[in-house]
Amino acid sequence: MKIGAQLFTVRDFTQTLDDLALTFKxxxxxxxxxxxxxxxxxxxxxxxxxxxxxxxxxxxxTHTNADRVTNETDRVIAEHKIFGCxxxxxxxAPGPLDCPADIDAFAARFLPAAHRIKEAGLVFAYHNHxxxxxxxxxxxxxxxxxxxxxxxxMDFTLDTxxxxxxxxxxxxxxxxLAGRVRNVHLKxxxxxxxxxxxxxxxxxxxxxxAILNACAxxxxxxxxxxQDDCYGENPFDCLAQSYKYLKAQGLN
Length: 252
Hints:
CATH class: Alpha Beta
Order of helices and strands: EHEHEHHEHEEEHEHHEEEHEH
Radius of gyration: 17 Å
Distance between the termini: 8 Å
Strand order of the largest sheet: 1-2-3-4-5-8-9-12
Number of strands: 12
CATH topology: TIM Barrel
Mean pLDDT: 98
Shape: globular
Structural class: alpha/beta
Largest sheet: 8 strands, parallel, barrel
Protein backbone atom coordinates (compact mmCIF):
# COMPACT_ATOMS: atom_id res chain seq x y z
CA MET A 1 0.00 0.00 0.00
CA LYS A 2 1.18 3.51 -0.80
CA ILE A 3 0.52 6.76 1.07
CA GLY A 4 -1.18 9.55 -0.88
CA ALA A 5 -2.44 13.08 -0.31
CA GLN A 6 -6.06 13.98 -1.04
CA LEU A 7 -5.73 17.49 -2.50
CA PHE A 8 -9.14 18.47 -1.15
CA THR A 9 -7.24 19.05 2.11
CA VAL A 10 -5.36 21.93 0.47
CA ARG A 11 -8.12 23.02 -1.92
CA ASP A 12 -7.72 26.70 -0.97
CA PHE A 13 -4.23 26.51 -2.50
CA THR A 14 -5.29 24.91 -5.80
CA GLN A 15 -7.71 27.40 -7.33
CA THR A 16 -5.36 28.66 -10.06
CA LEU A 17 -2.99 26.68 -12.23
CA ASP A 18 0.01 28.47 -10.72
CA ASP A 19 -1.14 27.66 -7.19
CA LEU A 20 -1.93 24.06 -8.12
CA ALA A 21 1.55 23.64 -9.59
CA LEU A 22 3.07 25.04 -6.39
CA THR A 23 0.89 22.73 -4.30
CA PHE A 24 2.19 19.70 -6.17
CA LYS A 25 5.72 20.84 -5.34
CA UNK A 26 4.87 21.33 -1.65
CA UNK A 27 3.10 17.96 -1.35
CA UNK A 28 6.02 16.19 -3.00
CA UNK A 29 8.46 17.95 -0.65
CA UNK A 30 6.62 16.40 2.33
CA UNK A 31 7.38 12.99 0.85
CA UNK A 32 4.12 12.06 -0.87
CA UNK A 33 4.45 10.36 -4.24
CA UNK A 34 0.73 9.85 -4.86
CA UNK A 35 -2.17 12.31 -4.94
CA UNK A 36 -5.90 12.39 -5.42
CA UNK A 37 -6.96 15.34 -7.56
CA UNK A 38 -10.10 16.86 -6.06
CA UNK A 39 -11.45 20.33 -5.39
CA UNK A 40 -8.98 22.06 -7.72
CA UNK A 41 -9.34 24.59 -10.51
CA UNK A 42 -10.00 23.33 -14.03
CA UNK A 43 -6.95 21.94 -15.81
CA UNK A 44 -5.99 20.33 -19.07
CA UNK A 45 -5.10 16.65 -19.08
CA UNK A 46 -1.76 17.29 -20.77
CA UNK A 47 -0.93 20.00 -18.24
CA UNK A 48 -1.79 17.62 -15.39
CA UNK A 49 0.39 14.89 -16.88
CA UNK A 50 3.33 17.30 -17.15
CA UNK A 51 2.97 18.61 -13.59
CA UNK A 52 2.65 15.16 -12.04
CA UNK A 53 5.75 13.90 -13.83
CA UNK A 54 7.66 17.09 -13.00
CA UNK A 55 7.09 16.50 -9.29
CA UNK A 56 7.54 12.73 -9.26
CA UNK A 57 3.85 12.18 -8.52
CA UNK A 58 1.14 9.85 -9.77
CA UNK A 59 -2.62 10.37 -9.51
CA UNK A 60 -4.44 7.40 -8.01
CA UNK A 61 -7.98 8.75 -8.33
CA THR A 62 -9.95 11.90 -9.03
CA HIS A 63 -13.21 13.28 -7.81
CA THR A 64 -14.84 14.33 -11.06
CA ASN A 65 -18.03 16.29 -11.61
CA ALA A 66 -20.91 13.80 -11.68
CA ASP A 67 -22.52 15.37 -14.74
CA ARG A 68 -19.29 14.99 -16.67
CA VAL A 69 -19.01 11.35 -15.64
CA THR A 70 -22.46 10.56 -17.05
CA ASN A 71 -22.67 13.04 -19.94
CA GLU A 72 -19.06 13.12 -21.16
CA THR A 73 -17.97 9.62 -20.21
CA ASP A 74 -15.63 8.93 -23.13
CA ARG A 75 -13.98 12.33 -22.85
CA VAL A 76 -13.42 11.87 -19.10
CA ILE A 77 -11.93 8.43 -19.75
CA ALA A 78 -9.57 9.86 -22.38
CA GLU A 79 -8.44 12.64 -20.04
CA HIS A 80 -7.70 10.21 -17.20
CA LYS A 81 -5.67 8.03 -19.52
CA ILE A 82 -3.55 11.01 -20.58
CA PHE A 83 -2.40 11.68 -17.01
CA GLY A 84 -2.33 8.03 -16.03
CA CYS A 85 -5.15 7.99 -13.47
CA UNK A 86 -6.89 4.60 -13.20
CA UNK A 87 -9.93 5.56 -11.08
CA UNK A 88 -12.69 8.05 -11.88
CA UNK A 89 -14.47 8.91 -8.65
CA UNK A 90 -17.36 11.05 -7.50
CA UNK A 91 -17.28 12.70 -4.10
CA UNK A 92 -20.95 12.15 -3.25
CA ALA A 93 -24.25 11.27 -4.82
CA PRO A 94 -25.52 14.27 -6.84
CA GLY A 95 -29.03 13.75 -5.51
CA PRO A 96 -30.79 12.33 -2.45
CA LEU A 97 -30.38 8.75 -1.28
CA ASP A 98 -33.30 8.76 1.13
CA CYS A 99 -35.41 5.86 -0.14
CA PRO A 100 -35.07 2.74 -2.30
CA ALA A 101 -36.31 4.69 -5.34
CA ASP A 102 -33.37 7.08 -4.93
CA ILE A 103 -30.95 4.14 -4.97
CA ASP A 104 -32.61 2.85 -8.14
CA ALA A 105 -32.36 6.28 -9.75
CA PHE A 106 -28.68 6.58 -8.83
CA ALA A 107 -27.95 3.17 -10.31
CA ALA A 108 -29.92 3.91 -13.49
CA ARG A 109 -27.94 7.10 -13.96
CA PHE A 110 -24.44 5.79 -13.24
CA LEU A 111 -24.48 2.13 -14.31
CA PRO A 112 -24.04 2.88 -18.05
CA ALA A 113 -21.05 5.16 -17.35
CA ALA A 114 -19.58 2.70 -14.86
CA HIS A 115 -19.77 -0.13 -17.39
CA ARG A 116 -18.18 2.09 -20.06
CA ILE A 117 -15.39 3.04 -17.67
CA LYS A 118 -14.76 -0.63 -16.90
CA GLU A 119 -14.71 -1.50 -20.61
CA ALA A 120 -12.02 1.17 -21.06
CA GLY A 121 -9.86 -0.48 -18.40
CA LEU A 122 -10.53 2.09 -15.67
CA VAL A 123 -12.59 2.02 -12.47
CA PHE A 124 -15.60 4.03 -11.28
CA ALA A 125 -15.67 4.81 -7.54
CA TYR A 126 -18.09 6.25 -4.98
CA HIS A 127 -17.02 8.17 -1.86
CA ASN A 128 -19.15 7.96 1.29
CA HIS A 129 -20.09 10.40 4.01
CA UNK A 130 -22.02 9.58 7.18
CA UNK A 131 -25.48 9.62 5.58
CA UNK A 132 -24.83 6.30 3.83
CA UNK A 133 -25.04 4.55 7.20
CA UNK A 134 -28.72 5.37 7.56
CA UNK A 135 -30.90 2.30 7.06
CA UNK A 136 -33.52 1.65 4.41
CA UNK A 137 -35.65 -1.45 4.80
CA UNK A 138 -33.24 -2.87 7.34
CA UNK A 139 -29.97 -2.35 5.46
CA UNK A 140 -27.64 0.62 5.24
CA UNK A 141 -27.56 2.83 2.17
CA UNK A 142 -23.95 1.63 1.72
CA UNK A 143 -25.18 -1.95 1.45
CA UNK A 144 -27.93 -0.91 -0.94
CA UNK A 145 -25.41 0.86 -3.17
CA UNK A 146 -23.08 -2.13 -3.09
CA UNK A 147 -25.95 -4.41 -4.07
CA UNK A 148 -27.04 -2.09 -6.91
CA UNK A 149 -23.71 -2.33 -8.75
CA UNK A 150 -21.72 -5.44 -9.68
CA UNK A 151 -18.59 -5.67 -7.55
CA UNK A 152 -16.33 -5.22 -10.58
CA UNK A 153 -18.20 -2.14 -11.83
CA MET A 154 -18.17 0.23 -8.83
CA ASP A 155 -15.45 0.67 -6.22
CA PHE A 156 -15.88 2.45 -2.89
CA THR A 157 -13.50 5.15 -1.69
CA LEU A 158 -14.24 4.52 1.97
CA ASP A 159 -13.64 7.42 4.34
CA THR A 160 -12.62 6.38 7.85
CA UNK A 161 -13.86 9.52 9.58
CA UNK A 162 -17.29 9.52 7.95
CA UNK A 163 -17.79 5.82 8.62
CA UNK A 164 -17.20 6.40 12.33
CA UNK A 165 -19.34 9.56 12.27
CA UNK A 166 -22.13 7.43 10.83
CA UNK A 167 -21.86 4.94 13.68
CA UNK A 168 -19.91 2.32 11.74
CA UNK A 169 -16.61 0.57 12.36
CA UNK A 170 -14.09 1.59 9.69
CA UNK A 171 -12.04 -1.61 9.77
CA UNK A 172 -15.21 -3.72 9.58
CA UNK A 173 -16.55 -1.84 6.56
CA UNK A 174 -13.23 -2.03 4.75
CA UNK A 175 -13.34 -5.80 5.30
CA UNK A 176 -16.98 -6.01 4.17
CA LEU A 177 -16.12 -4.34 0.88
CA ALA A 178 -12.84 -6.19 0.32
CA GLY A 179 -11.85 -6.17 -3.33
CA ARG A 180 -13.78 -2.93 -3.92
CA VAL A 181 -11.63 -0.55 -1.86
CA ARG A 182 -8.60 0.29 -4.01
CA ASN A 183 -8.46 3.71 -2.37
CA VAL A 184 -9.26 4.55 1.25
CA HIS A 185 -9.43 8.04 2.76
CA LEU A 186 -7.62 8.25 6.08
CA LYS A 187 -8.62 10.96 8.51
CA UNK A 188 -8.72 10.83 12.28
CA UNK A 189 -11.36 11.99 14.76
CA UNK A 190 -10.88 13.89 18.01
CA UNK A 191 -13.23 15.50 20.52
CA UNK A 192 -12.42 19.17 21.10
CA UNK A 193 -14.60 21.86 22.67
CA UNK A 194 -17.34 19.25 23.15
CA UNK A 195 -17.57 18.44 19.43
CA UNK A 196 -16.10 15.84 17.11
CA UNK A 197 -13.45 17.16 14.76
CA UNK A 198 -11.24 15.89 11.98
CA UNK A 199 -7.58 15.49 12.83
CA UNK A 200 -4.27 14.36 11.34
CA UNK A 201 -3.93 10.60 11.12
CA UNK A 202 -2.63 9.11 14.36
CA UNK A 203 -3.49 12.10 16.53
CA UNK A 204 -7.06 11.17 17.43
CA UNK A 205 -9.19 8.32 18.69
CA UNK A 206 -9.52 6.02 15.69
CA UNK A 207 -8.04 2.53 15.67
CA UNK A 208 -5.58 2.94 12.83
CA UNK A 209 -3.62 -0.28 13.45
CA ALA A 210 -6.87 -2.20 12.85
CA ILE A 211 -7.80 0.01 9.90
CA LEU A 212 -4.42 -0.45 8.22
CA ASN A 213 -4.54 -4.21 8.75
CA ALA A 214 -8.03 -4.32 7.25
CA CYS A 215 -6.85 -2.30 4.24
CA ALA A 216 -3.95 -4.67 3.65
CA UNK A 217 -6.28 -7.69 3.79
CA UNK A 218 -8.91 -6.02 1.57
CA UNK A 219 -6.54 -5.28 -1.30
CA UNK A 220 -6.33 -1.52 -0.78
CA UNK A 221 -3.66 0.04 -2.97
CA UNK A 222 -3.62 3.68 -1.83
CA UNK A 223 -4.11 5.25 1.60
CA UNK A 224 -5.12 8.83 0.88
CA UNK A 225 -4.72 11.32 3.70
CA UNK A 226 -7.56 13.83 3.85
CA GLN A 227 -8.63 16.51 6.32
CA ASP A 228 -11.60 18.57 5.18
CA ASP A 229 -11.17 21.09 8.00
CA CYS A 230 -7.87 21.87 9.70
CA TYR A 231 -9.44 24.33 12.20
CA GLY A 232 -6.98 27.13 11.58
CA GLU A 233 -3.86 24.99 11.30
CA ASN A 234 -1.81 25.02 8.11
CA PRO A 235 -3.22 22.16 6.01
CA PHE A 236 0.23 21.34 4.62
CA ASP A 237 1.43 20.88 8.21
CA CYS A 238 -1.53 18.55 8.83
CA LEU A 239 -0.62 16.52 5.74
CA ALA A 240 2.97 16.35 6.98
CA GLN A 241 1.90 15.17 10.44
CA SER A 242 -0.23 12.39 8.93
CA TYR A 243 2.58 11.40 6.59
CA LYS A 244 5.04 11.16 9.48
CA TYR A 245 2.68 8.89 11.40
CA LEU A 246 2.06 6.57 8.46
CA LYS A 247 5.77 6.38 7.65
CA ALA A 248 6.37 5.31 11.23
CA GLN A 249 3.96 2.43 10.61
CA GLY A 250 6.26 1.17 7.86
CA LEU A 251 4.31 2.62 4.93
CA ASN A 252 5.61 4.81 2.12
